[in-house]
Design goal:
5 helices; 16% strand; alpha+beta; 3 strands; elongated; 30% helix; 134 residues
Length: 134
């Protein structure tokens, strides 16, 4: 039996993964596990298939629409935190994927409201506080 998962891209990796917001149904394997560990994708649904597909996952992916009625409402957050030297955009995407609110109004910041936008270092601190870390 093959374990099939629907993954959604959280950011576009260099190669071998779904783009941001794109969903693929693939057989769970080492490549998918690496995408999950890197934070490039997250599992949104999974099922066990009686028929094992022997094709390479690159050839069996299917793009699903977000409002697909067959899409199971299962959300598994397996994304690891980005590296501390990752871009502010990566940290912002990561916090959004975890549902953590943070100040993100650059125009107000540029106009003088210094509390309207968080830098990368601020985002790291916000994540640590939300995770109960120091």
């Amino acid at each position: 039996m093959a374990r099939m998962v629907t993954i959604e891209g959280t950011w576009t990796p260099a190669v071998g993964g779904p783009g941001r917001g794109e969903r693929w149904e693939v057989e769970f394997d080492v490549r998918v596990r690496n995408l999950l560990r890197a934070g490039a994708a997250r599992v949104v649904a999974e099922r066990v298939s009686a028929e094992a597909d022997t094709q390479h996952p690159e050839h069996i992916h299917a793009v699903l629409e977000p409002d697909d009625p067959d899409d199971v409402e299962l959300e598994t957050s397996t994304a690891a935190a980005p590296a501390h030297n990752a871009s502010r955009a990566r940290w912002a995407d990561y916090l959004r994927s975890k549902g953590i609110a943070f100040p993100d109004d650059r125009e107000a910041f540029d106009a003088g409201d210094k509390t309207a936008w968080a830098s990368r270092d601020d985002l790291i601190i916000i994540d640590q506080q939300a995770s109960g870390g120091s």
